[in-house]
Fold this sequence. Notes:
Structural class: alpha+beta
CATH topology of the largest domain: D-amino Acid Aminotransferase, Chain A, domain 2
Number of domains: 2
CATH architecture of the largest domain: Alpha-Beta Barrel
Radius of gyration: 19 Å
Number of helices: 8
Strand content: 25-35%
CATH superfamily of the largest domain: D-amino Acid Aminotransferase, subunit A, domain 2
CATH class of the largest domain: Alpha Beta
Order of helices and strands: EEHEEHHEEHEHEEEEHEHEEEHE
Amino acid sequence: MLENRIVFLNGDFVAWKQATVHIMSHSFSRGSAIFEVLGLHETIDGPAVFRLDKHIDRLFKTAELLDMELPISKDEVHEAVLATIKRNGINQGFIKIIGFYPQVAFEILPPQKRLDLSVFVIDPAEDFENLSFPLESGTTLCISRWCKLDPQSVPIEAKVAANYLNGIMARSEAKTRGFENGIMLDTQGFIAEGGTESIFLVKDDKLMTPALGTVLDSITRKSILRAAKTLGIKSVEGRLPPNFLFEASEIFLSGTPFKVLPVKRIEDKEIQGAPGPFTQKLSALLDEIIAGRDERFRRWFFPV
Length: 304
């Protein structure tokens, strides 16, 4: 139960109900909280965090892009994550690191550069009754009328709360239209990403995904491209026109909660045979990696 969870907060461990800020805090009212979401997996060697080093690097990159300062070092964040997992005694689930301004502020600028820092860990099976993903049956996808944020308007590489209103709008529209997920195009009309997901498609026997520059530098995306190379799958990162979505033989989404989520329908087109062979091969390899059974990728895990 969530109320039994222990939270890391500025160097201390506090009860779940004590991990609060004022409603008028800058990060609540202006969306200035930065964050990372990581996977905790039960491997053959015990619980381990997936690519903890890369997530911490990206957290610090976000702070740099937004002219913020984190209160502790990368090594200290690393230790805080592992210690929080141990305190909560869970073997699998998710970790969320949040940097935030707790101070009450009316001005648009934060009152200082230095952030507070918190670490949460959850086990979805125990803490959230309705959190599930259609990994076997596949998901449905529409093209949103909302464009992905333009990189000349905000730093899209930053994982900051305010940026995710963009994804909320795309997902909300998808739900209204009867789909489970929405994919956004960038402001030039090329395929970008979902609300919180990267997108991959298979066309002409190649795995394709939008190039960096208009999408988040997703760690799961990066991992899938590396896994594809191991399987001998040719990958293409580029500016992909939306018609490719209707010409693709396979489409899947990726993110921290699910490494490979097959798409069975895009708009009114059913994708026959989903999940297809590329999706199945990548999903099977990612399952092996997540279980810690593939020696080639064991350096991606950080034991608790």
